[in-house]
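Complex 325.
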Amino acid sequence: MKMIEVNNLVKMYKRARKPAVDGVSFSVGKGDFFAFLGPNGAGKTTTISILTTTLSKTSGNVKIAGFDVDKEARLLREKIGIIFQNPSLDPQLSAEENIRFHACLYGMCGYRPAFRMMPAAYRNKVTALAEIVGIKDALFKPIKKLSGGMKRKLEIIRSLIHTPDVLFLDEPTQGLDAVSRRSLWEYISDVRNQYGTTVFLTTHYIDEAENVDTVCVINNGKIAVCCPPDEMKKSLLRQELILDAEDRAALTSELSALGLPFTINGRVIVPYQTSAQDIIARLQTKLTVLKIHEPSLEDAYVDFLNKNAGIEMVPADHSNARRMR
Ligand SMILES: Nc1ncnc2c1ncn2[C@@H]1O[C@H](COP(=O)(O)OP(=O)(O)OP(=O)(O)O)[C@@H](O)[C@H]1O
Ligand SMILES: [Mg+2]
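Predicted structure with magnesium ion bound:
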């Protein structure tokens, strides 16, 4: 069964010169993990906003969990959880009150003015989720006393409290530290295993999409490619050999003599298309380092955008992820 069906989706903002989303079509199966990647301004948030009924479309068809985004918006909303790209908490409430308000909207309670009066299922779930994302101590504090990362974690708890069938995550880990990022992904993986939740992710941390079922790259409002991550790696990226020798000059002159292209980047990096063994067998210089670099999804993604979209990639100082400007 398809949980997300998008056909020829178009969004033209008022007074814009071109559509932000320009004829996008894709579908996501039940329980699938789907990554929607693309540079800043590509149209990811616009798409997610339409899919989650917070923005109207110009044309096209969208169904989520079998419900039409225009005609069955209320039913559709019951099936989804969202982490918005921009903060969406009520600053007048405490952390837990923000979650409770959301839970009540989803019919998880009648009118209950206090946490201790809420059903045990709610209290247990909030407490467990707060522990997982590491804000148990901040649960009853006013929003204004929470750091940016803590607020993000709170939004994560809120999106999961009603056990949605489809979870939309628009840059969910932006602003989270490495430990919280990892525990969040472990938790989402558990949620998927336990409930078969379909997950739609946008992120600039491409390593987070390494284990998805399908990657779709959007650029200038159009889908550029849609395939499993492994296919993207295979079809788009050359592999690399990382070599080094005590006598690096001898190694580089040998590579030049063999007509092999290489770059020196602390070590000698030789891109190869065919057999690594073949190259190694032809080298006389004694090697001190010999590694075959397995391409990551991020490598393939950057390579793809450089080749296909003419976009210059700028590495950010965030762990091993690159952001695009
Ligand atoms: N409310 C709006 N009114 C007019 N134009 C908008 C509006 N929101 C977004 N846009 C434009 O639509 C395009 C797509 O924006 P969108 O926010 O969907 O990109 P994105 O892929 O989510 O980017 P990012 O990675 O930076 O979050 C951009 O050109 C943006 O300037
Ligand atoms: Mg966005």
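The chain has a mean pLDDT of 87.
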